[in-house]
Specification:
The complex is a heterodimer of chains A (228) and B (401). The longest helix of chain A is centred in the C-terminal third of the chain and has 18 residues. In chain A, helix 5 packs parallel to helix 6. Chain A has 228 residues and is an alpha/beta fold. Chain A contains 9 helices and 9 strands. With 401 residues, chain B is an alpha+beta fold. Chain B has 2 domains: 177 residues, no CATH class; 198 residues, no CATH class. In chain B, strands 1, 2, 3, 4, 5, 6, 7, 8, 9 and 10 form a 10-stranded mixed beta sheet that branches. In chain B, a hairpin with a 2-residue loop joins strand 2 and strand 3. Classes of the chains: A alpha/beta (228), B alpha+beta (401). Chains A and B meet through helix 1, helix 2 and helix 3 of A and helix 1, helix 11 and helix 12 of B.
Chain lengths: 228, 401
């Protein structure tokens, strides 16, 4: 059974100053198997982040279906989507989105606490796995950009999610850190047999994936945008 | 555990506003508790401060003025009582003890009261407690220019056994009106925590015959303190002096007479209480404002928490708990402020009236007010919590540029 299945997913927004909703995501069909790693390429404004938010349940779809680990996300209420996200989805943001007032360890523990529950030993072990065993009590601002990204990765995979979403995870890193971060994300997903959906427009990143899907082809709304 | 961590970290992140808000709540809570306790204790202590006396006989006038003058050594005397009136009540079979007092002089502003030694030997300073003389002292002897000094006066102006002083005429200190008569201090009273501590006691005849006092009234007294044999006796004397007679006033029962004082001050009481409640409301408003104003700075953290899977209810609860925690910290400080306020108030009341309030005594308000204010703080947190609850996730995940 695929970890992620998308069918006829649609989302439109009313632009500022506008009156009629403008389609942003319009995807016919897409799926991802357990352990599969797919890169989603797309230019700015092609609906990448909106798609990831819809898959993560942060945004509710206007219509269509998103199934994550066999559960129909679109049939759930907000609390149900929150629970499914906490238990089955790991989300790595381009800007890391670490909680600045919390230590590295607390960031990871918080990520766990909304899902199956905080596991201190597992959190420590994960931070050790990403090379931050000696930075557990550091605040994010006390870490380098690359280290912050590694905390974000540890937090995203702390609940052993079935699906990991990564939104331009290397966009803010230098080439060396970008390569290391990518290897880390892909390595941990492989270890956990988690499906990875990674969005990037970096050719070097895209080139490292066997399956690359162009969002401008996948997303009919983006195609219309291009045609216009 | 998660909520506790969220609250702890948020308090730390907004430390300055947390401290300032908690302090404002501490002062508000302290003020509320102090007003309550001072009001309650003042009423209880004043109305229970009548010592072992049941009634006061004085010149025709207001009962409250008579009691304040004779027992609390406040106010002016309404007039004199003939010595024969004193003798009449002293020999009345319904009366267990009658002690005359005479006022009209002071020493450096402290009231000098003429009386007889049986005030110290037969009467009680307060129920179940006699007057006690300090070491090396003795009572004055009737007919001699001797004085026994209350503990508060002795401490304030440094009078000790063997010292001499010359009284001043009138109840208020005027350096130009010093009498020639010189008095010897024979004893200092141990603190009795009653208005007697603020008085210099001399023989009744000493005050009556002080040089410069009118000879025509030399045998008069200012009032007579009365201990009754039974409560029924009070009714008989009340009838005799107040209803059938028209020369004298028999102030009885003393508790009811003193209650008039607080009844008259009722409006002031209510204003004070209202001010305290307003201060509490303003402080609760400061909890609301401080958290609400920080919401724009928190919106990204809230969005991140939601993206990690936190439910709206979790975010809502964290904000309400944070407000309650700020109020909780404030209430710890409030107890400190309360005892500080009360110590100051008790000191002022003692120096002005001799009545001692108990700073450290237990009162249910010390639990009820803090719990109420923590609840009020939590309620104040609901408004910003609702804002957090409604905060959109996707648009707030983007860092502010």
């Amino acid at each position: 059974m695929p970890v992620l299945e998308i069918e006829e997913l649609k989302k439109a927004f009313v632009p500022p100053g506008g009156t009629a909703p403008v389609p942003v995501v319009d995807i016919g069909s897409f799926s991802l198997e357990a352990g599969e790693q797919v890169a989603l390429s797309g230019s700015s404004g092609s609906g990448k982040t909106t798609l990831l938010h819809l898959v993560a349940g942060i945004l509710a779809a206007d219509s269509g279906r998103v199934r994550v680990a066999g559960t129909d996300m679109t049939s759930l209420g907000e609390a149900g989507r929150d629970r499914l996200r906490a238990e089955s989805i790991g989300y790595i943001f381009q800007t890391f989105n670490l909680l600045q007032g919390y230590s590295c360890l607390e960031n990871v523990l918080l990520g766990m606490s909304f899902g199956p529950g905080a596991d201190l030993a597992h959190a420590r072990s994960l931070l050790g796995r990403v090379g931050l065993a000696d930075r557990l009590d550091y605040l994010p601002r006390q870490l380098s950009t690359g280290q912050q990204q590694r905390v974000a990765v540890a937090r995203a995979v702390a609940n052993r999610p079935r699906l990991v979403l990564a939104d331009e995870p290397t966009g803010n890193l230098d080439p060396s850190n970008a390569r290391q971060a990518l290897e880390l994300i892909r390595g941990i997903c492989t270890e956990n047999n988690a499906a990875l959906l990674l969005v990037s427009h970096d050719p070097a990143v895209l080139a490292s994936f066997q399956r690359v899907v162009s969002l401008s082809e996948l997303n009919r709304a983006a195609r219309k945008e291009v045609a216009l | 555990m998660t909520l506790a961590l969220l609250v702890r970290r948020s308090l730390r992140q907004h430390l300055l506003s947390t401290v300032v808000t908690a302090l404002s709540l501490a002062m508000a809570g302290g003020l509320l508790m102090s007003v309550w306790v001072v009001r309650k204790q003042a009423r209880e202590t004043f109305t229970g401060q009548t010592g072992a006396w049941d009634a006061v006989l004085g010149a025709r006038g207001a009962k409250l003025q008579l009691v304040l003058n004779a027992l609390f050594h406040l106010e002016a005397s309404a007039g004199n009582v003939a010595f024969s009136d004193f003798e009449a009540i002293a020999t009345n079979r319904a009366v267990a003890l009658a002690v005359p007092i005479a006022v009209g002089d002071n020493y450096l502003g402290y009231r000098i009261v003429g009386t007889r030694t049986n005030l110290f030997t037969e009467a009680e300073a307060s129920p179940g407690r006699r007057f006690v003389l300090g070491k090396g002292g003795r009572l004055f002897e009737d007919g001699y220019r001797e004085a026994v000094v209350g503990s508060f006066v002795a401490a304030r102006i440094g009078l000790k056994v063997g010292d001499t002083f010359k009284p001043y005429h009138g109840l208020n200190f005027n350096p130009k009106e010093q009498h020639e008569d010189e008095y010897l201090v024979t004893g200092i009273l141990e603190p009795s925590n009653t208005p007697a501590d603020r008085v210099i006691w001399i023989p009744l005849e000493g005050l009556q015959n002080m040089t410069g006092h009118a000879a025509a009234t030399a045998t008069d007294v200012s009032a007579v303190l009365v201990k009754l044999r039974s409560p029924i006796a009070g009714q008989q004397l009340d009838l005799m002096y107040n209803k059938q007679g028209n020369r004298l006033t028999f102030a009885w029962p003393l508790g009811a007479v003193l209650s008039q004082l607080f009844d008259k001050m009722g409006w002031f009481d209510k204003v004070l209480e209202l001010v305290a409640y307003l201060v509490v409301l303003v402080a609760a408003g400061s909890v609301l404002a401080s958290i609400y104003n920080s919401m724009s700075a928190r919106r990204r953290d809230i969005a991140i928490l939601r993206a990690l899977g936190a439910r709206r209810s979790t975010v809502f609860s964290a904000i309400v708990l944070e407000a309650a925690a700020i109020a909780g910290f404030g209430m710890v400080g409030a107890l400190g402020f309360h005892f500080a306020f009360l110590s100051v108030a008790a000191g002022v009341i003692r120096s002005q009236t001799g009545v001692v309030l108990s700073v450290w005594s237990w009162d249910p308000i010390l639990v009820v007010a803090p719990l109420g204010l923590v609840l009020l703080g939590a309620l104040a947190g609901i408004v910003p919590a609702l804002k957090a609850y409604r905060s959109p996730v996707a648009e707030n995940l983007v860092p502010e540029s």
